[in-house]
Each structure stands twice: as structure tokens, then as C-alpha cells.
Amino acid sequence: MSGVVxxxxxxxxxxxxxxxxxxxxxxxxxxxxxxxxxxARSGAVLLAALxxxxxxxxxxxxxxxxxxxxxxxxxxxxxxxxxxxxxxSRPVLVYHDRGPTLSLEAPVEVIEGQRLLFEALQISSxxxxxxxxxxxxxxxxGPIGSLDNLQQLRQRFEGGVAHAEL
Amino acid sequence: xxxxxxxxDGAIIAFRSRGAQGAQTAIAKFDVDGQPFxxxxxxADLGDGIADELQVVLSERFASQGGELRIGVAEQASVxxxxxTVPLPIMVGTWVGRSFSVTTTVxxxxxxxxxxxxxxxxxxxxxxxxTLRPNGAAHLVESSIVVDLGIVGLAHVRPLxxxxxxxxxxxxxxxxxxxxxxxxxxxxxxxxxxxxxxxSWVTVVPDAAMLAVxxxxxxxxxxxxxxxxEWLGGAR
Lengths: 166, 236
Description:
The complex is a heterodimer of chains A (166) and B (236). Chain A is an alpha/beta fold. Chain A has five helices and seven strands, in the order H-E-H-E-H-E-E-H-E-E-E-H.
């Protein structure tokens, strides 16, 4: 028992020393150019690539690239599943391989097997979100890693895009 | 006791010591688009521990490269050039695999940039640790590991690169099975021992308080004299 305590104590001493070393070498960073996914300039093209067809125009959409390993994505699916949405403004969830099993009535659209699109857009971390405005332009794209931030984005989306329901 | 350790650049370190070895961490400095970044890897909960110490809550979580990328930010007080206390945002990013993690700490950066920073590397969890392979814009500056030698102190192991080899003293140190052993005598590095082999440079930093104990001096010398450390492979 005392051996375990000594080992744990030694491990924490090492961790504290590392933290001191890390704190001493904290780096100033403003921007990291060239980092992250490729910008998708046209939301209409993105929706077309996903074969999301909407009669009478694009309308506002949220497109979320997810994965089954992504805990936040799974929480998101649950949250989105609770809200109402009309046929042509349903959030679109895009998966690399297989997606979650949802009921037919679920107010989200799940598109699976989009490995090529993940590669083309260089998306390696999920959730990764696109917001497309009613004229088909991408007004936001980026990684969003918490439900709180997704909710904030959703509110912005609802405030800025007329008639979009999430 | 022979142990093998994983460096972040892919090298394997064969580490033989007289006594048991404790916690081990790997450290690597990379240059990404002209800016320096330091990563540290260790057990899966190391990044959470660092975040706790810096009072950072890792609230953003992404599925990334077969693991989970956790990111958080906290504002800390810093003193500027004029002596004024100013807020300084500190961001921690940690990629966590099944058994190991790799963490970096930066200031004044946003979440997408931190995700983008990890995207600059191919992160892989190996049998004994994590490796980071630059994808293009990043390149390795320095790779090392730190091994806890218990009562003897901490051993900092670096590969014997050409620039480092030029800094080896011209005089021969004490010859031991693991290479040439040197001892620092200056006030700054008093008690610090160096062991240079064909492939590695090991710096053993003892606990300063222990140096006053006469019996410890012998223990320290014996401990380092029995070390045999070789740095194998990696992106040198």
C-alpha cells in the first residue's frame, strides 16, 4: 500500500515539474496560417454534393460533420431530435462512414458514407459545422466542440436566417 | 532494469538503470509556420492534470484522429512591460487516446486554431506512447524524454544530434558502461550529472535538498554510473 502511495506521489511530483516547465515555455500565438479545413465558399454547392435537394431554393441550413466516436455529436443528435423542424430546413448530419440509427420521423437528415467529402474539405475533427444562409452562402464554418457553443451558434443562426427552424 | 520509451518524434529509447523507473514523459518542440510550439505526452490523464493546475476547464471536445481532442481556455493575470496587471488567456489542448495523451499550452489563440494546430500532425497512439508526425507546415526542432529515477532525481534524455555532439567537453569524462560521465561544479548546475553515449545525452538533475546528504552523493554517482541509455531512430 505504501509503495503505491509513494509511486503516486512521485508521479504527481513529475507532473508538477512538467507544469512548471510548460508554464515557462508558454508560446505567444496569434494565428496559425494554413491550419484547419478548406473553406467551402458555396453552401449551395456543398448541399448539392450531399444531394440535399430543396424545392423552391436552398433556405438556411446547418450542416454538421460528425462521427460515431464524437460524444458531442451524439449529444447533439439527441438535442436536435427533441426540436421540431420543417422538411426543408432540417439540420443535416454528415458521417464519414456509418451514422446513428434514427427513427424516420427524426427532425434531422443523416447522410452516411461521405469519406470523400471529409477528405476534400480536410475535416479531421468532429463536430465540424457549416451554416448556410438562404441565398446559399456559407456564413460560418468551423469546429464546435461543446453543446453550449452549438446552442449559441444555433441562436445566431435562428436570429440571422428567417424561417429557419432547428 | 531495462525499459523502452516512446519519443514524440517516433524514436525508441532503450533505458537501463540499476533501480526502478517511475513516470516518464516525452517532450517535443516543433516549428509551425515559423512559430514555436511545445508538446508533452504521458499517461492519458496528464493533460487533464495540467489543465487543472492552470485552472482551465476542457469544455470543447472533438473526435480527432482516433482519440478525443479536449480544448479549454482560462484567463490568467500577467504583468506587462509597464508593470500593469493584464489578463492573459491561456489555452490548453490535449489529445487523449486509450492509454496516453499529448498536450500543448498556448496563449491568445482560438479553438479553431488549436484544432488546426493538431491537424498539422498525424497523431498516433503506439504501444508505449504517442507519436506526432508533421503533415507539412510543421517541422521538428527538438525531441526529448524525462524519466523519474526516484531518489536519484529526474533524467532528461536527448538524442546526440550533431549540434549537441559539438557541445560535448573535449576532455574525457569518467568512463562508465553507459558512456562518458561528467559532473557540473559551477554554482548554477552543482550536482547535475551528464552521461553521453554514442546516441544520447542524459542530464540527471538531483533533488537540490538531497545534495546536502553525504550518503546521497554516492547513491547519485552510482545511479548514474549504472545508466545505459540509447536513442534509437526518430526524425533527427
